[in-house]
Amino acid sequence: MAKLNRDTVIAEALDLLDEVGLDAVSTRQLAKRLGVEQPSLYWHFRKKEDLLSAMAEAAMAPHGTAPLPESGDDWREWFRENTRSFRRTLLLRRDGARLHSGTRPGGANLDQLLHKMAFLIESGLPEREAQIAMLTASRFTVGTVLEEQADPGPEDDSTDIPQIDHESAFEEGLNLILDGLAHRIEHQ
Length: 188
Hints:
The protein is mainly alpha-helical. The chain has two domains: 6-59, Arc Repressor Mutant, subunit A (Orthogonal Bundle); 65-153 and 160-186, Tetracycline Repressor, domain 2 (Orthogonal Bundle). It has helices spanning 6-20, 27-34, 48-59, 61-64, 75-91, 96-100, 107-122, 127-150, 166-186. The relative contact order is 0.10. Helix 1 (6-20) crosses helix 2, helix 1 (6-20) crosses helix 3 and helix 5 (75-91) runs antiparallel to helix 9 (166-186).
């Protein structure tokens, strides 16, 4: 195996996550997968929570490459696509929403978030409402993806419980958020 570095550990940990799920990820399994002794992982991560945080940050990298809004962009279309991008990114990994849940943006991610909020403010939302809009979209998306990733699918076709089309339900919820924001902007 090549020299063990932080990026290699994170990449292998994410592959392990996709194979076994978040509950089964362990530093013991990861060390075995990497061909090292478990204590060597502590060189890069002092505790498992540090590893999980780094995994969550790396798992969100595809969303971090989404275009940032520019002055003059349609705020509704940007907000819609930004939220969709976040959902797609969470769905890329098994238990992606659970892995992301509870994390806080830092570094470049925080800079991007501040840019997005500044765009919403420029579009007519007061600062506090721009913050709440981003938080609401984030929590809505994480919650819907949590449910989607936990859905066992049709268990018994004879039940009267309608099957959920997760993507349609997400889009309808996103429309409700956008309609509320548009109402706030229009009635200031």
